[in-house]
Amino acid sequence: MSWMLPESFSTFGGDIDRIYYIILWITGIAFFLSEGILVYFLFRYRHKEGRKAKYVHGNTRAEIVWTAGTALIVFIVGMLSIGVWSRVRTQLPQDAMEVIVSAKQFEWNVTYPGQDGVIGTEDDFTKRNEVHAVVDRPIIAYLRAEDVIHSFFLPDLRVKQDAVPGMETPVWFEATETGEYVVGCAELCGLGHYRMAGTLTVHTAADYQAWEQAEIQAAGQ
For 23-77, how does the pLDDT look when each residue is reduced to its tens digit (9 = 90+)? Predict the structure, then answer.
């Protein structure tokens, strides 16, 4: 169990957690440093009888230092993040399972390929609020939205991606442990937002095949 964050069951979860903690440390240090200086100034420059306030226009050197320092920190974090971002967001894996996830108020409709194994054909079947995947095999979810913006959120796999009306957005993940995990919506999408939840079930290859065949037969294919 990692500190503050739930344990990750994704191939890229560790990389995302590492960046998160780097940013947390940087912002934490900046927070305590700035608050410490503020408290020091409150006592150092508190009101004293006979002492007049002095107007100071600014300090060019200090402004250059903190601006340049902030820019350098942002640049370093960007360089540390760009490889992970590219891997997670732009490099879709080969030979991945494919599903279509259609969001609407207030449910996730997940479409799976039917007997032909090809997504987007007539023999596809759909499950409501159920995402099924195979352990140690990547899966690509093509996100769509029918009404408003929703956000496909798998906290245990470090996946969060908006589903936007009029767009199809691919997002992928690869689970490293079997089990059941939460599927949530991380975007305030209406009065029923709180109940827009589903389940991600990660199977072994054999269990997934058995589940898939049962669903195909139930759909009359």
Answer: 999 999 999 999 999 999 999 888 888 888 778 888 899 899 989 999 999 999 9
Task: Please name which of 134, 126, 88, 94 lies closest in space to residue 110, comparing C-alpha atoms.
Answer: 126
3-state secondary structure of 141: strand
Whether the Cβ atoms of residue 211 and residue 180 lie closer than 8 Å to each other:
no
Task: Tell me, rounded to whole angstroms, the distance of Cα 200 from its chain centroid.
Answer: 15
Element (H, E) at 162: strand 159-163
- Residue 56's alpha-carbon distances to 39, 42, 53, 66, in angstroms, are 19, 17, 10, 18
Amino acid identity of residue 12, one-letter, is F
Length of the chain: 221
**Best CA proximity match to 69, nearest among 129, 38, 105, 29:** 29
Cα four-point dihedral sign 199, 166, 147, 126: negative
Structure tokens at 30: 């900046």
**Which residue carries 């440093």 as its tokens?**
33
User: How is 45-68 classified by DSSP, letter by letter?
Assistant: T---TTPPP------HHHHHHHHH
pLDDT per residue as tens digits for the range 99-135? 999 999 999 999 999 988 889 898 899 999 999 999 9
